[in-house]
């Protein structure tokens, strides 16, 4: 049998890296394949309980070289959910404080990608453990709450090689909330972190992160990829964003705007007139996008899980681009959606938005380098089987009996949603 060159085997393993079962099967082909496949098999590790660490400690104690392959680590604190109950029932110590967890994490010297999820007010000892990963290049924080700005700063101080940072639903608690921004902004690290990729969600709720990122802890000259998510809130919400927004947003935009080449905006479009997207309105009124002179690609995702037709809000995106000149912009991608829950929503499927004025704007001299504009319409339905097989949709919110049964033409698609390119 002819021998497959190692570089082709690595190519095969790269394509199967998302399926652990396939990778394990590759380890059984021969010794050469096992040696090449093991770094893929053991590249990622997820932990949420102390009991999960015992078998891994035994494995890595018997085969120390396998621990060298772990580069991605996912830590699920479970401080707000059912994992806390499991921990109490099994009489386990708090996660990241148990001896088995500490022993395991000390065996992992090559962690470059770390995701921490669901940690509520991590203790000083937990933060000390998280600072163990000296080679960290990519960090994701999701649903994490720090008790004080100093806890966040201590956690991040050792990440001198950080290139990517994603922050989602992460908060800092303090008795003097108005001082969080200045405290983070004025902190200076001996080695500022040089980010290349940054994702913030939701910006409106955590403006103090903008102060932190534009302060002395970071050097953002290398930042080229930026993702911002903006939510909509009721106009009578009890805690409005700090005023003015400019004191947080403008310094951040002036710091990063000149170098950003790839920008993604996840904009929640308000369904009710009583709601407003503060960040969207601020960007429109101040023409903040004009600061991104080096911008090459721009993706806008109009997100709202509850709205029936956010394609109707295409006018908001048009307002965002008015009076802007982006000389280097080459590609624009806009995604909006229809949601079909009942037969009564079927007519809205045909009500595609009129975007002639936006098309005319993109063709103007304001975008001299623009080569491609893509408009995606996502059509989502809870009755996907009816769409797929051409069945009758029986349920309807209408009182009209004649409208209770509607024939839906079949769609030649296998997934639960499709994207129509106009």
UniProtKB/TrEMBL annotation:
InterPro entries: F-box-like_dom_sf, F-box_dom, LRR_dom_sf. Gene3D superfamilies: 1.20.1280.50, Ribonuclease Inhibitor (3.80.10.10). Residues 2-39 form the F-box domain. SUPFAM superfamilies: F-box domain, RNI-like. It comes from the Eukaryota. This is F-box domain-containing protein.
